[in-house]
TrEMBL record, chains A, B:
Protein's name in the database: TetR family transcriptional regulator
GO molecular function, one term: transcription cis-regulatory region binding
Domain (HTH tetR-type): residue spans on this chain: 19-79
Entries under Pfam families matching the protein: TetR_C_11 (PF16859), TetR_N (PF00440)
PROSITE patterns, A to Z: HTH_TETR_2
Organism: Streptomonospora alba
Record's keyword terms, sorted: DNA-binding, Transcription, Transcription regulation
Length: 202, 202
């Protein structure tokens, strides 16, 4: 749907003006959810922060929950990447540093609180499940390459993700010490060695 | 301090009536903190639930935060044990099942939320640190025995605890699937194998 209420010149990139307005709204929502929580942010403030008319927010997302869910998914897109430098250990340590960095932002903290089961609506819960799927898929692609190269036995990426990110979340959320590159390297080292040592065919 | 306001017959076990009253108050506090959160529970309700006079609560814990902290520490005492059946893998898997069970209770969930750094008062933060120390110490004792028996290279129990309980917390808190014995066994298997494989002298 075209948004005639936006007061800026047409964008030249694919998607056009409405896509740009939507992106601004989602970014503003992300910021406000981080500040006020999923239940606390207000449409008026989203519009103000996004620099658009309030009607643009209501027209694109008549349902408040859908707006939160899309904002969460947008945020997840930015995070769900695992590089391939050819060095699996390094790439996974980078991945863990990225997770830790994400958790340390205000939005990351809000997301962590949203993860508490009792606080989730079904829609938010579903969005979190999709975010998780994206991350697991990104990890799976990197791991598949490593398996092809003979660097790792075949492994369940869902389990690998839990083994890698569980300790990261624990250290960051506990907040008793900073999460460092040494932590990331150590976690990756133990988990990869453990997976190699316990693989059925090794 | 003797508690003359309690209306029950003197207890025969060590510690006497006041010890029993204190234990009842701490148990009631634990239950109410689980229901209403650290900031939300009320002294009147603690007294009612504990079956004691309100003055008993105020006299023993004039400071609200000290009451919470002692209740947290009491709860931790119950949890901080790692058995020694002679089978390290099994004992650690039991330990993880215990952590998962604790997290699944209402009180465990409240504790998890209290762990979010932004929500902690210094006293609660200190109590959580002591709870953690107790758990790490319990794990350390079990691991030391395993090291003595040559079952494991020397290992930093703090790090081992993070590697083991991080994935447990992640799986339980995410709430997307139940945490099972198979999960516990798998986590212990990978972590122990990884620690053996990455030890300097192995």
């Amino acid at each position: 749907m075209a948004d005639r209420s936006a007061d800026r010149p047409p964008a030249r990139r694919p998607g056009g003006r409405n896509a740009r307005v939507r992106a601004q709204i989602l970014a503003a929502t992300t910021e406000l959810v981080a500040r006020d929580g999923i239940a606390g942010f207000r449409y008026e403030e989203v519009a103000e922060l996004a620099g658009v008319h309030k009607t643009s927010v209501y027209r694109n997302w008549p349902d408040r929950e859908e707006l939160v869910v899309e904002a969460l998914l947008c945020y997840a897109d930015d995070l769900a990447s695992v590089e391939d430098t050819g060095d699996l250990h390094r790439d996974l340590a980078d991945f863990l540093m990225g997770i830790a960095g994400g958790l340390e932002t205000p939005f990351g903290r809000t997301l962590e609180q949203a993860i508490q089961p009792a606080r989730q609506s079904p829609a938010v819960r579903q969005a979190l499940a999709r975010i998780l799927d994206q991350r697991v898929a990104a990890l799976q692609r990197r791991v598949d390459t490593a398996v092809d190269r003979g660097e790792l036995p075949p492994v369940d990426s869902f389990f690998l993700g839990e083994m890698l990110s569980g300790p990261v979340r624990l250290i960051v959320n506990r907040g008793m010490r900073p999460f460092t590159r040494t932590d990331a390297e150590r976690i990756v080292g133990v988990v990869l060695a453990g997976i190699r040592a316990t693989a059925p065919h090794v």
